[in-house]
Request: fold
Amino acid sequence: MGKFLQKTNIIRDYLEDIEELPAPRMFWPKEIWGLYAEQLEEFKDAENRDSAVQCLNHLVTNALEHMPDCFQYMDKVIAPSVFAFCAIPQVMAIATLAECYNNPAVFTGVVKIRRGLSARLAMETKDMASFAAWTMHFAQEIAAKVKPNKDPNAQKTLAAIEKIEDVAASKMLELGVTRRTHGPKVAGLESNVKAVTIQANEEPIPVGVRIVLWLIFFGYFCYAWQVGRVRVSLGVDESYNGRTTVEHFNKALALLFLMFFTYIGITGKKW
Reply:
């Protein structure tokens, strides 16, 4: 989480740091910016704007890769006040990355999120559901800005965003949030949650559960149809036949259940 927040600040403050007096502060990692320029100061020049933006997008992608780890950290935070204290800076950070991504203004000034948005994030980010919803919202904002034909890191960016969306949708599913009730109205969020729900429902019933269910209703079948000495073993008089109507109903019901759970036992599908 700390790396994610620190990288976001470093990305946003490029111009302020590079123009620091008496000497520039250079926090952008050379192993990344060195792929796009010989000197970090070159990104200030308008003629290098394309390579500068490509480097910027590379750095944003690198920061986004920490977001799934942030969810793991937040899972361990229990106290609501501490959760909000940790979650709000992270949501503001990914909002800042959404503003910075593919934005040449980073090299001409300081890019910040609007004050109204900052206030809304501070007020609404208070639990895992809102944290996941806002995170997905800004991840999708970044995805909408990706230009595969111009950005050499486009596929890596989309892969990082996909991981964030998967984690966020999974958290909302765990919380039973199947509709947008927290954060912004995010296009596609319901479909993502629905997709996760469908995937969960398509997982087969464990084999052990299937076996137990089948044995229970096989026993009921044997009782209803008087197979072997099942009734005697249960303490029922062997000569007792009960009411004819009830017996016929039990036999039909037992046969239906046995057929149904035989099907479930073979396919493992949930009903």
About this structure: The first helix runs from residue 2 to 12. Confidence is low (pLDDT under 50) at residues 186-201.
